[in-house]
Model the fold of this input.
Amino acid sequence: MRALLNLTAETAARYLENLEERSVAPSPEALVGLTELDEPLPELPMAAESVLETLDRIGSPATVGMAGRRYFGFVIGGSLPAALAANWLAGAWDQCPGLFAASPIGTKLEEVCLGWLLDVLKLPAGSGGAYVTGATVANFTALAAARHTVLARAGWDVEADGLFGAPPITVVVGDEAHPSLIKALGMLGLGRSRVLRVPVDSQGRMLATALPPLKGPAIVCMQAGNVNTGAFDPAVEICERAHLSGAWAHVDGAFGLWAAASPQYVHLVAGVADADSWATDAHKWLNVPYDSGLAFVRDAAALKKAMSLTAAYLPQGRHREPSQYTPELSRRARGVEIWAALKSLGRTGLADLIERNCRFARRFAAALQQGGCEILNEMGLNQVLVSFGDAARTLQVIERVQCDGTCWCGPTDWQGRTAMRISVSSWATRDEDVERSVTAILRAAAV
Ligand SMILES: *Cc1c(COP(=O)(O)O)cnc(C)c1O
Done:
């Protein structure tokens, strides 16, 4: 085992070092090489060392260099050194943190981190929390608590009796809500198409004045950080209006919620803490390895009633039992890496990470604008939308950027325009990476 793990460490270190030199996108040959995996189930065993060597030989070149310094696709983030190391140790531990009895350390770290996260994200102390795969499931989990509460207030027990014959719930979203939020609503039986969509401004912010009148069971879903522009819905006004009519206010803050960790950007989350539930990702801006999402619910009991494994009303034992708060019973111990990330960064390190990424995003925007490109969004956070002309030309430039391999950025649609999106979310990105990437992008745009 020791020899195998040492070999693994060597292999992984070599992979990460190689990211400095190689193309961020995998080469066409590496993708062709994947066909070697199309083989029948092996009849005979293979030594673990050979399994690892095969995986590295075929797999490493066919990765996208997301762990490197110049990956700016989607909102991905890298893996902090302490978080990656903790992930390895957690793999060796092989803990199932659903129950205290199954993993004292796994459950303890989740409990400690819940307190730390509520603190650093400026959310109400004592809120309930769930460690899940990502913001999609975090939205699902938090909105299940919302569904429970608004129906319980109408005298309906949705966990026991389902939605058949239940009072209807009015669900309101912004017109630029993330598709995963709509999917979560669909999975909850609230209907992808029956949601009411509120008009938004040029940055995707919900117009608070356009909120429809709310009556009876209702859930209003806001966004902290639009995936394209980084813009925040006006949470102060929306929470106030939602609460005046007894509606539940939910926030999808997959990456934007982390602005709360920075003194320079905390003003963006004004009013967000007034909501009733929140979803965010740790695998995005906290830079822990995939997968890691977080749901928070002000009324911890509501989350427990929606997610409890057994009859929802059992008293809490001596320990926090995480599976009372999550969709899953068995799952990996995500608190380990989150603890390692927060412990290694501290409050100041996290603020610095957020501020550095936002500074780099502004630098991208300024340099590309100076180079003749059009920036489509107001630079408020870490997302940059770049247009190189019409849709066809913009897509062409994006393809050249990806083929060049210096950095990686993907396409997006923004209110009828095709754009290249740059998301600066990795701890590893440095000034010189922004310089190199700007040069590569301008080179691709000059053809
Ligand atoms: C990324 C993102 C999601 C989905 O998160 P996953 O972790 O991929 O499930 C939801 N909402 C917003 C605003 C996002 O940026």
User: Anything to note?
Assistant: Residues 75, 134-136, 178, 180, 223, 225, 227, 252, 254-255, 281, 293 surround pyridoxal-5'-phosphate (CB under 6 Å). Residues 2-68 form one domain. The chain has two domains: 2-68, 85-341.
